[in-house]
Design a protein that fits this description.
288 residues; alpha+beta; 2 domains; five-stranded antiparallel sheet; 6 helices; elongated
């Protein structure tokens, strides 16, 4: 049994879930009357995605295939079915984590949609139509989502897509964006239009740690933001939207200061002030 993912031309696919699944079923009957092993038959964006993905996951079939002996020894050899509006890829389960991260990142890079076929109620992601995010890779940053392989040198576009991928329960419920040199970071918990964001900065052998909030809202009432089998505590005004989170991550990624349209509650006293980060602990334990 393989680990299956699909990318698709977003302009050709319906965005409503049931309609999309019907569209997916129709397109994966492979009844278009053409060969399904050559990128010349698909859209330019999907062809560009395919050209990138096969550098890490070579095609085991068709004109781009490796030799049989090399395929047998290479766990990353992958099967691809190429249609007019979709590319369906079946990876080996041993490569699932790396495949998932690579397919997602390249979907963002090439502005194609992403469908997690193998997951129960698998996520369906469309690129934003409201603006064109910056796809320039940013050196010195690492982006990690709960349960996924880390992305190094992420772009603004990838960090924004990562916010969309936070969908507990089931999907990732936490992400961490780190500055590799300074060890500063921003962490986001939650998903589905209910998030909490914390920002940490190191200086003079100590650190400061803040929680982002919306001004003019309830700063007293305690709330819980749901994750996967856990929850994140905050104040009512600290329940942020998808757009709020993207603004904050964008500022951190660009190396600017905390966005001043938010209020920042200093919670440094909750930590052992002056201690250095414990880099040996797993990334998900950065949360207080």
């Amino acid at each position: 049994m393989s680990y299956d993912l699909m990318v698709f031309e977003p302009n050709d696919a319906p965005r409503e879930k049931d309609a999309f699944l019907d569209w997916y079923d129709e397109h994966t009957k492979w009844s278009e009357g053409q060969s399904n092993d050559h990128p010349s038959k698909t859209t330019p964006n999907l062809a560009a995605w395919y050209d990138d993905i096969r550098r890490d996951f070579p095609n085991m079939n068709g004109p781009d295939a490796y030799g049989p002996a090399q395929d047998e020894d290479n766990p990353r050899s992958t099967g691809y079915m190429i249609g007019k509006s979709v590319i369906y890829a079946d990876f080996r389960w041993s490569e699932a984590e790396a495949a998932y991260a690579t397919v997602r990142a390249l979907a963002v890079k090439h502005s194609v949609g992403f469908f997690n076929v193998s997951a129960i109620d698998g996520e369906i992601w469309f690129p934003s139509t409201e603006h064109t995010p910056d796809k320039t890779e940013i050196l010195g940053l690492t982006l990690t989502l709960e349960g996924q392989q880390a992305f190094t040198t992420p772009s603004i576009a990838l960090t924004e897509a990562a916010v969309d991928w936070l969908r507990p329960p089931g999907g990732p419920g936490f992400l961490l964006l780190e500055n590799d040199a300074s060890e500063d970071y921003v962490q986001v918990g939650g998903g589905r239009e209910a998030y909490i964001v914390e920002w940490r900065e190191y200086a003079n052998e100590g650190f400061r740690h803040w929680v982002a909030g919306r001004s003019g809202n309830d700063t007293k009432r305690e709330i819980k933001i749901a994750g996967n089998g856990t929850h994140f505590l905050g104040k009512a005004n600290e329940r942020l939207s998808n757009a709020n989170v993207k603004d904050i991550l964008g500022a951190f990624a660009r190396g600017t200061s905390k966005p001043q349209e938010f209020v920042w509650r200093d919670i440094t006293a909750q930590f052992a002030v002056g201690s250095s980060p414990d880099t040996s602990k797993p990334w998900w334990q950065f949360w207080r």
